[in-house]
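Notes to self after the Tuesday call (sharing in case useful).
The group wants a holo model before anyone commits to mutagenesis around the pocket. I volunteered. Ligand is (2R)-2,3-dihydroxypropanoic acid. Logging inputs and output together so the record is complete.
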Amino acid sequence: EVWNPNGKYRVVSTKPMPGTRWINLLVEQDCRVEVCTQKKTILSIEDIIALIGDKCDGVIGQLTEEWGDALFSALSRAGGKAFGNMAVGYNNVDVDAATKHGVAVGNTPGVLTETTAELAASLSLAAARRIVEADEFMRAGLYDGWLPNLFVGNLLKGQTVGVIGAGRIGSAYARMMVEGFKMNLIYYDLYQATRLEKFITGYAEFLRANGEQPVKWKRAASMEEVLREADVISLHPVLDKTTYHLINKESLATMKKEAILVNCSRGPVIDEVALVEHLKHNPMFRVGLDVFEDEPYMKPGLADQKNAIIVPHIASASKWTREGMATLAALNVLGKIKGYPIWSDPNR
Ligand code: DGY
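Result:
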């Protein structure tokens, strides 16, 4: 699909994206916008090179594409200056290769913080209260009356939520769980989580001043401390060499037998084979997973586990956020083409 065929700058989007705001923005600034409508969900490097063609000023791409040397050199040969990744995570982008070929890279932080945190909170609640299992039970026609022991789960109030990676999303999630469900908090981050610390100290003071029951909170000295002490653990680190298989056989063994583990970050943060084994042998341990190690595939056995809730990488999938991500990705590309400072450069 093409908008403004005579536009001066050629911008390609490898996928249709929600809303029209991002298209209008580009068109108003003299861009010809081409959207790839191929049915295939994951485009190959060859597909994308063909889309780039001989002249292309910028590309908006997706986290399912491997943006490395081959694509950046093709983009640079076509005169391209900018690549906008429609995601906050950019583990699919080799930023050094982009820099080498003179292509600027932008990502989409901020607009997906609350939406992603809301899904992590939803998975936490769904796991704690066994909502998916209960729904399946109803649909199977198995409900034949109220029973004292039917789908008994955990009360989150007074339990401890553990956050690993207290950046924007981890902090928003922590706030939701502490404020919304009166959970105690333990978190671990390599850097000082100023945003979260400000919230939690202020909130603790608010509760004290109002004579309400206090929440306990602490910054853990190690990830293991969080794994040992928390009842619900949510993972929010970036994926890089240091966080690959951060959760493995040993770390799973460190967690409480009835813990809940939630992952809305990136699949390879968890060793999924080890996780499947752990789920098999610990029926009271539950997980809520939005991401998988080899998307779109799951490791054998995962889908058979009743104690796993699995959803297809939808953490940022609210209308407002997805339109915001598309707009920000377009602005990043446009900014570079027009020589404005790029809005969200992951190197900054
Ligand atoms: C991201 O932005 O990194 C998410 O995984 C997709 O929304």
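Two things stood out.
The pocket of (2R)-2,3-dihydroxypropanoic acid is lined by residues 63, 87-89, 112, 316 (CB under 6 Å).
The longest helix spans residues 319-338.
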